[in-house]
């Protein structure tokens, strides 16, 4: 049953809309966040709904994960430009929580091999697919007579929801008290479409202006979410500052600076039921801070064997799990791999741009003793890499939050990072001083270039040889608190503030 009768005092009704969430569908960090945040909020006593597209192609995975999906019989029609599209509601729940999952079914839009693209090409009707999904979220609320206090939209795919709530549905009796939050997980992906797609949003053309939905002549859904939401968050405090500057603002820095009063940064947490070396079901041997040495040795041997690297227990193993995109630092990593003159092994798990996939395959062939590359998406291997590596490589050019550096610290695997965004907010560079103070948790560099990265890798490898110092570093890493309850409290503060304040004033259209 998805509509609860009685509520505790002060508890809020919160609807989170996302285009992906674990285990229903995942392409990146958004899926981890969209699954963990609702659970953390629900544990704090609030009623939570999570709305997702029903990607039927993912169904076998879901059934395996024991998340049964139920039909509701609820259907709805949505005007999409000149046609009417029918959708249907399914529901599920995240076991052992009060989180109800609302699955929007529209097979023509969502029953496809990819979430957003196939063979490297975005689906041509992405605007239509996610405009439909955004409107469907509102239609489903109407059908279920759901009056959320907060609708929390995420990234461009659901950015239309805050706009609908501030315009077409502003005076709808069910949404009079509803406030919207919009979270930017990665500003680089903005949902930019040609202007005629404005028709698909169903909103009046008067909103297609430079202050609201238009940017550089196109319909821009990211901008739409920023402008219309009552509060905007992004996934780390540093990234919240960075995106107001031309270097990181991806053309929207002025929009963000204009709306800086409602912008804040909240670092993501880690779902420690899934990502913790003491309970992880994917790794060879579980361990904690006391047994880390033995535990890591077993996982390292298993990892080296699985990836075909020589099993050398004393050779430092540097792992990386990543989308293979320029954002993740691949352009500065590529030249380094042939420059490291040390006894070290490198291991890559990732998919992405073909130039990087090919380059890694080539290097793995050329240096089979030092470099291994698994080109693909493999959740189990990702866990084993966190557990079995000695160091984790994450020199992203920019990083809104990043999850893998937090996972790696929890697994006693110090990360090597570029000091940006969430990496700057979560990793403390190791110096003699920070190590002694119990604060140093990794290795970071300021200037994004190959030389700085190479120096930092060498600095990390030097410390690896100093066993007592290394053990201390590993202990520092493992005692960090990255739990979701910390982040969830910050979201709740924003939600509570909004429910007690009037709606964001919308700039007058021209
Ligand atoms: P982003 O969302 O920018 O891709 P994050 O670090 O925030 O980066 O999150 C990436 C998530 O996706 C992590 O959970 C990571 O383990 C996972 N991931 C990325 N690539 C792969 C892959 N090839 N195989 C398995 N998991 C992957």
Indicate the CATH architecture of the largest domain: 3-Layer(aba) Sandwich
Q: Kindly report the average pLDDT value.
A: 93
> Helicity level, as a percent range?
25-40%
Number of domains: 2
DSSP, total strands: 20
Q: What is the number of helices?
A: 19
- Distance linking N and C termini: 45 Å
CATH superfamily of the largest domain: Glycogen Phosphorylase B
Q: Which topology of the largest domain does CATH recognise?
A: Rossmann fold
Question: Quick one: CATH class of the largest domain?
Answer: Alpha Beta
Structural class by helix and strand composition: alpha/beta
Main sheet: strands, sense, barrel: 9 strands, mixed
Strand order of the largest sheet: 3-4-5-2-1-8-9-13-14
Rg (C-alpha, Å): 23 Å
Task: Estimate the strand proportion.
Answer: 15-25%
Shape: globular
Which ligands are bound?
adenosine-5'-diphosphate
Q: What are the segments in which pLDDT stays under 50 over at least 5 consecutive residues?
A: 1-6
Short descriptors:
510 residues; alpha/beta; Rossmann fold; 9-stranded mixed β-sheet; 19 helices; globular; disordered N terminus
Describe the model.
By secondary structure, this protein is α/β, with parallel strands linked by helices. The chain has two domains: 13-269 and 486-499, Rossmann fold (3-Layer(aba) Sandwich); 292-481, Glycogen Phosphorylase B (Rossmann fold, 3-Layer(aba) Sandwich), CATH 3.40.50.2000. It has helices spanning 29-43, 59-64, 107-110, 126-144, 160-166, 198-201, 221-228, 237-242, 253-258, 292-307, 330-336, 354-366, 379-388, 404-410, 421-426, 432-436, 450-465, 467-478, 484-499, and strands at 13-17, 47-53, 70-80, 83-93, 99-105, 117-118, 121-122, 150-154, 179-184, 192-193, 214-215, 218-220, 231-234, 263-265, 317-324, 345-352, 371-375, 391-394, 415-418, 443-445. The strands form four sheets. It has a nine-stranded mixed sheet, with helices on both faces. Strands 17-16-15-18-19-20 form a six-stranded parallel sheet, with helices on both faces. Strands 10-12-11 form a three-stranded antiparallel sheet. Strand 8 (150-154), helix 5 and strand 9 form a beta-alpha-beta unit. Helix 1 (29-43) crosses helix 19, helix 5 packs across helix 7 and helix 10 packs across helix 13.
């Amino acid at each position: 049953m998805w509509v609860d009768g009685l509520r505790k005092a002060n508890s809020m009704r919160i609807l989170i809309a996302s285009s992906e969430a674990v285990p229903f569908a995942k392409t990146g960090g958004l899926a981890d966040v969209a699954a963990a945040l609702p659970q953390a909020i629900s544990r704090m006593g609030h009623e939570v709904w999570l709305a997702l597209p029903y990607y039927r192609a993912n169904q076998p995975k879901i059934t395996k994960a024991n998340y049964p999906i139920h039909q509701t019989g609820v259907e709805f029609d949505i005007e999409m430009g000149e046609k009417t599209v029918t959708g249907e509601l399914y529901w599920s729940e995240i076991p052992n929580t009060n989180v109800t999952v609302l699955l929007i079914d529209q097979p023509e839009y969502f029953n496809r091999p990819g979430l957003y693209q196939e063979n490297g090409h975005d689906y041509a009707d992405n605007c239509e697919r996610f405009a439909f999904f955004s409107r469907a979220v509102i239609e489903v609320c109407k059908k279920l007579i759901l009056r959320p206090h907060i609708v929390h939209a995420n990234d461009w795919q659901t950015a239309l929801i805050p706009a609908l709530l501030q315009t077409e549905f502003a005076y709808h009796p069910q949404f009079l008290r509803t406030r919207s939050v919009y979270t930017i997980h990665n500003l680089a992906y903005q949902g930019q479409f040609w202007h005629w797609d404005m028709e698909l949003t169903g909103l009046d053309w008067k909103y297609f202006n430079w202050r609201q939905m238009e940017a550089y002549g196109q319909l821009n859904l990211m901008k739409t979410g920023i402008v219309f939401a009552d509060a905007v968050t992004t996934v780390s405090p540093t990234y919240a500052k960075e995106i107001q500057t031309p270097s990181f603002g991806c053309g929207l820095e002025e929009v963000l600076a204009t709306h800086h009063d409602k912008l804040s940064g909240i670092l993501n947490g880690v779902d420690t039921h899934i990502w913790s070396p003491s309970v992880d079901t994917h790794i060879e041997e579980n361990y904690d801070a006391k047994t880390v040495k033995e535990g890591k040795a077993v996982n390292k041997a298993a990892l080296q064997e699985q990836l075909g690297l020589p099993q050398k227990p004393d050779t430092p193993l540097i792992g990386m799990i990543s989308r293979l995109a320029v954002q993740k630092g691949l352009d500065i990593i590529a030249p380094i791999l042939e420059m490291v003159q040390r006894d070290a092994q490198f291991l890559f798990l990732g998919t992405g741009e073909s130039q990087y996939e090919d380059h890694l395959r080539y290097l793995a062939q050329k240096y089979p003793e030092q470099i291994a590359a698994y080109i693909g998406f493999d959740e189990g291997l990702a866990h084993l890499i966190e557990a079995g590596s000695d160091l984790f490589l994450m020199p992203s050019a920019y990083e809104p939050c990043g999850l893998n550096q937090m996972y790696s610290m929890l697994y006693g695997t110090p990360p090597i990072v570029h000091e940006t965004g969430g990496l700057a907010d979560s990793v403390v560079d190791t110096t003699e001083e920070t190590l002694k103070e119990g604060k140093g948790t990794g290795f970071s560099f300021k200037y994004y270039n190959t030389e700085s990265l190479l120096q930092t890798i060498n600095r990390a490898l030097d410390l690896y040889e100093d066993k007592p110092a290394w053990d201390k570093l590993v202990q520092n890493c493992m005692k960090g608190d990255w739990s979701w309850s910390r982040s969830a409290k910050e979201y709740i503060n924003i939600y509570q503030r909004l429910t007690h304040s009037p709606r964001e004033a919308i700039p007058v259209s021209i």
